[in-house]
Amino acid sequence: MALVISNLFGQNTPAIAATEGLYEEMWAADVAVMSAYHTGVSAAAAQLAPLQQALALPAAVDFSISIFGLQLVQGGTANANSTFGGLAVASGANSTANAGVTDIALAFGSGSTAEATGGVLNVAGSFGSNSSTSATGGVNLGTGALAFGNNNTVRANSIGTVNIGTVAAAFGNDNSVTAIANGVENNATVAAVFGNNNTDVSAVVNGVENTGIVSAVFGSNNSGVAANAFGVENNAVVATVAGSGNNTVLAQAGGAGLNEIVLASAFGNNNSVAATATGVGGNLGTVATAFVGDGNTVAASATGAHTLTAATALFGDNNVVKANSFGAENIGTVATAGGSGNSAVSADANGTGNIATVATAFGNNSPNVAASALGAGNIANVATALGNGNSATAKAIGVDNIATVATTAGSNNAVGASGVGVGGNIANVATAFGSDNSQVSADAGGAGGNIATVATSFGNGNKVTASAFGAGNIANVSTALFSNNNTLSASSFGVENIATVATSIGDNNGVSATNSLGVGGNIATVATAIGFGQGDNQVAAESGAGGGNIASVATVLFGGNNTVSASGLGAGNIADVATVLFSSHSTAHASALGVENIATVATSLGDGNNVSASAPGIGATSPPWPPLSARATPRLRPWPAPAAPTSPPWRPPWVTATASRTRRWARPISPASPPSSGTTTPQTSM
User: Residue ranges of the PPE domain (predicted)?
Assistant: First the structure.
């Protein structure tokens, strides 16, 4: 402007022309810049048009977004995929999101599919109905598929070196849910359903070390609920159901190493629950449980050295409960049922050594409560029924068996404990508390010996037996205490038998103690009945041996109309005793047959009793008293027997008619036989 004002004489014209040329060049540059800016802004606006349209027309939006592969926001049946950095988000029905490398892929909406593949870190999530989610890569963290609604198919699949949090879950009905993890190390593989009528709810893991494999259902009428793990070591494999009518709730683990906590559980009615573990290293805690429900089938099975294999049904009726273990060492194989009408409650252990094989029923009318152990050594094989109408058995077969026990508390039960061992059996015990128990038995058979074979009844109308077969048997005992109308027997068969005892305290009881074929001998074969009222007890103690018998004793105390007998058959018999004390109208008989018999005694204290004692022997009989017919009056020393007449023919030594008086020795009425052919032992009557 200054050049123009001062150009009065035209002197500044060249300078003004040069300046105008510079301004023209500047404006031309500005126009070019503005034109390029306009072009860029137009392109950006074109990219943002779908988002603008979505904001303007939300009903038409499906939505899509992708980062690092750009493609930010894409409307219409959304499809977002990305590479390198990841994050592909898609929203809307039938959306697909695919992200690569360190990917996060999320899809929202019905029928959505989200995949995150080929990266180091994969997270794939799907929220909606008919969703499918898959994550694949070297390291997987948080692979999840989640569906809200009905008729959904939910899949979470991770394949990688380390998989953490592979989760498939559905909230609704008629869904299919699967979570699968395959890798060196898998943690928290979970399949869960909240709803009814769901199928194939499963968590599956294959890896070297697997932790937390869970399949869970909260609802009814679901099928195929399974948690399955295979690896060197598996920890916490769990399948659980809360509801009714659920079929095949399974927790399964197989591995070369150790399986810890394999659990299948059901809360409700009419469920089928199983826990199975197979491990070369061993199994710790294989448990199948049904709580608070009826009509459940519960099974726990472990193969391999194991600790605690348990099947339990509590607070319910009509359940089937089984626990089974097979391995080198089995500790704690347990089956338990609480309720009535449980058709089978069983615990079975097979292995080198079995400790604590236990079957227990709380309730009534359980026909099969059984604990069985097969192994080199079995300790504590126990079957227990608490209630009425139950059958409980405990069986042990092995080299050595310790504490085989069957117990019932109630009425109309059958209880048996049996042990068969090459070595021996210690504490084979059957016990009944109650009345009308058809069978309470303890049986022991061992090539070595049996110690403490015991059958006991507290109640009325029970049948109680204890039997032992072995090289040596000690304490074979059958007892009915404070009860009536019982049948009791204790029997032993072996080289040597010590303390075979049958005892009854009550009335109308049949009690027997039998020692058969003790090649060495039988010591203390004892049958005892103690009556409180009418009596009517039948008591017998019998011992037979190739060697000798010591103390075969049958005793009745109190009551009336009792029959008691004691007999011994062997090379030598010592103290063969039948006794009735404080009892009336009873019969007591003591007999001994052997080479030598010492102290064969029958005693009665009461009124109207029939008492006899006989001891035929080939050798000497002590005391060596001659027939009383050889003496005019009783003497302190024996007299020689008279010469034997030639007629009439002599009666056998054991055929003798006696007439007894109070506090007098009985005298034979007919001519006595020669001293060499037989003797008669003292008899007393009060």
Answer: 2-48
Task: Locate 472 and state its tokens.
Answer: 């040596």
Helix (H) or strand (E) holding 138: strand 132-148
| Structure-block tokens of residue 356 | 């604590």
**Distances from the Cα of 31 to the Cαs of 17, 20, 37, 41, 349, in angstroms?**
21, 17, 10, 15, 95
Kindly report the number of other CB atoms within 10 A of residue 434's CB atom: 24
Q: Looking at residue 12, what DSSP letter applies? A: T
**Dihedrals φ, ψ of 247, to 5°?**
-110, 130
Q: Which residues pair with 521 in a beta bridge?
A: 496, 548
Nearest to 140 by CA among 111, 115, 165: 165
Is 30 in a helix, a strand, or coil? helix
- Note whether residue 443 is domain-resident: no
Please list, residue by residue across 252-271, b when 16 or more beta carbons sit within 10 angstroms of its beta carbon and e when fewer do: bbbbebbbbbbbbbbbbbbb
pLDDT tens digits, one per residue of 436-476: 887 888 888 877 778 888 888 888 888 888 888 877 788 88
Identify whether 263 is part of a domain. no
Residue 175 domain flag: yes
Contact predicate 309/288, CB 8 Å = no
Structure token pair of residue 276: 């199975």
Give yes or no for a contact between 307 and 328, defined as CB atoms under 8 angstroms apart: no
Q: How many whole angstroms separate alpha carbon 585 and alpha carbon 562?
A: 7
pLDDT in the model for residue 661: 29
pLDDT digits (tens, 9 = 90+) for 571-610: 778 888 888 888 888 888 888 787 788 888 888 888 888 8
* Separation of alpha carbons 170 and 566, rounded Å: 77
**CA–CA gap between residue 383 and residue 369 (Å, rounded):** 7
d(CA 339, CA 527): 39
Q: How many CB atoms lie within 10 A of CB 597?
A: 29
In degrees and rounded to multiples of 5, residue 46 shows phi and psi of: -65, -35
Vertex 351 angle, CA 346 and 353, to 5°: 100
**Rounded to two decimals, what is the model's pTM?**
0.71
Scored b (16 or more CB within 10 A) or e, 495-505 reads bbbbbbbbbbb
How many independent structural domains does the chain possess?
A: 2
Q: Using CB atoms within 10 A of its CB, is residue 665 exposed (0-12), middle (13-18) or buried (19+)? A: middle
Residues 6+ apart with CB under 8 A from 19: 3
Closest CA to 449 of 418, 477, 423: 423
pLDDT at residue number 17 = 60
The greatest distance separating any two alpha carbons of the chain, rounded to the nearest whole angstrom, comes to 202
361 within 8 A of 345, measured Cβ to Cβ: yes
Bridge partners of 377, per DSSP, are: 353, 400
DSSP string, 237-266: EEEEEESSS-EEEEEEEEESSEEEEEEEEE
* pLDDT, tens digit (0-9, with 9 covering 90-100), for 497-541: 788 888 888 888 888 878 776 566 778 888 888 877 777 888 887
Domain stop point among 173, 207, 241: 207
What is the spatial distance between Cα 421 and Cα 616, in angstroms, rounded to a whole number? 39
| Burial class, 132, CB count within 10 angstroms (exposed 0-12 / middle 13-18 / buried 19+) | buried
Local structure of 439: helix, strand or coil: strand
| Lookup result for tokens 């075969």 | 552
| Selected residue with higher pLDDT from 15 and 460 | 460
Angstrom distance (rounded) from CA 349 to CA 422: 18
d(CA 598, CA 537) in angstroms, rounded, equals: 27
Tell me the residue range of the domain where 80 lies.
Answer: 62-207
Report the relative pairing of strands 667-668 and 658-659 from DSSP bridges. antiparallel
Q: Which of 175, 207, 239 is the last residue of a domain?
A: 207
SS3 5: helix
First to last CA, the chain: 165
Q: Are 178 and 193 in contact (CB under 8 A)?
A: no
The CA distance from 526 to 491, in Å, is 11
